[in-house]
Amino acid sequence: MRGLIGAGPEHTAHESALPALTVSIEKDLEVLVQRFLARKREDLGSARIALAAGDYETIRRIGHDLKGAGEGFGFPELSAFGAALEGAAIARNERALGEQLTAVEQFLSRLRVTFR
Amino acid sequence: MNSATLKDPEVKTASPLQPAAATPGSTLRVAVVEDDLSQAELLSHWLELAGHHCHHYDRGEGLMRALDQESFDVLVLDWNLPDISGVDVLKRIRASRQASLPILFVTARNREDDVVMALRQGADDYMVKPVRRLELIARLEAIARRGKHQNDQPEVLELDVYRVDCQTRTVTREQRPVELTAKDFDLSVLFLRNVGRLLSRGHIRESVWGPNAVVTSRTLDTHVSRIRNKLGLTPENGWRLAAVYRYGYRLEQLDTAIPRTPRNSAL
Q: CATH assignment of B22-146?
């Protein structure tokens, strides 16, 4: 489909396990959404490294930014995940952080964005 | 697009939002201080769709440096910045020569005491992220309007001996028409709508010539000089269109007309 953003090759294992979640967004946001999702995937990688290092402040900041921006781009789930990440980081809850990061990764792996 | 709804468990569609069209003369010069690049890009996109000009800063100090040389109609300010907090930026602006700059806080901090603190420190409005596009634009335009800046100005402006009709693009002085070029008219309107306000050169250029125009300082000075002469914006007429060194211009209405003397004839 024209203007479709997939999850990226690193997520193919998830794709076969979970159904895709398709989001339709205005065409004028295509470039911004592509950049946003690419940055958030990078942030997830950084958050995994930070979790391994016990760097809760980095995860709190990543969660905070995700909470603030996700819904504006058309992804309210990402804002909810961001809030959960921020809260778990403030609570220094390693287990909850691991679960939330997995949830965000799964969401992004399922996500298919079309532009209209 | 910020209020996406589920039409089907697996297919979502963002809610259609009408673009907010700018009305003539309603363009705002907006500074956005936001360290999250994605968020900044989205806000800039929304502002530009609404017909406003956006200037982005990712640090509080970057904005404070810019304010030494630039003026804006409204500021969108994040709280959590990498260098100084948004509240500190707010305090410094309120203590500066740009103290009246309308400020809209846009932050993910949603605690009541945060909102109260920002408003008590002088913020004009406060929005919690994620923000909705049309609401953001409406709130921003509202605080700019309350700040008596350009937005939603009347078509006819009457001030002292001047009458400006933006519909017919004509200016009269003591009921006599003043011949002005298109740019000189726009420049006159900008100053007459912002009496007493210090406008930076960048602000003047952007408002009159547009955000992408290349206009030299000399060209700008020539236009200012021309409207000063044509409109008689001089102390002996009770007005002063003063240059502020390395910054811009301010049109002032004097309490009393100052008789022309050799010492003030250059004003």
A: 3.40.50.2300
Residues in A touching B130 (Cβ below 8 Å): 67-72, 76, 79
List of chain A residues whose C-beta atoms are within 8 Å of the C-beta of residue B42:
29, 32, 36, 69, 72-73
Contact list in A for residue B38 (CB cut-off 8 A) is: 32, 35-36, 39-40, 65, 69, 73
Q: H helices within B82-124, ranges in order?
A: 86-94, 112-120
**Domain residue spans of chain B:** 22-146, 156-253
- CA of B82: which chain A residue's CA is closest? A61
| pLDDT tens for chain A, residues 1 to 116 | 444 555 444 444 444 567 888 999 999 999 999 999 999 999 999 999 999 999 999 999 999 999 999 999 999 999 999 999 999 999 999 999 999 999 999 999 999 999 98
Please tell me the pTM assigned to this model: 0.74
Q: Has domain A9-115 been given CATH number 1.20.120?
A: yes
Q: CB burial class (10 A; 0-12, 13-18, 19+) of residue A9?
A: exposed
Question: In the CATH scheme, what architecture does the domain B156-253 have?
Answer: Orthogonal Bundle (1.10)
Distance of CA B159 to the CA centre of its chain: 21
* The CA-based dihedral angle spanning residues B181, B185, B186, B187, taken in that order and rounded to the nearest 10 degrees: 100
Report the residue from B45, B49, B80 with minimal CB separation from A64: B80
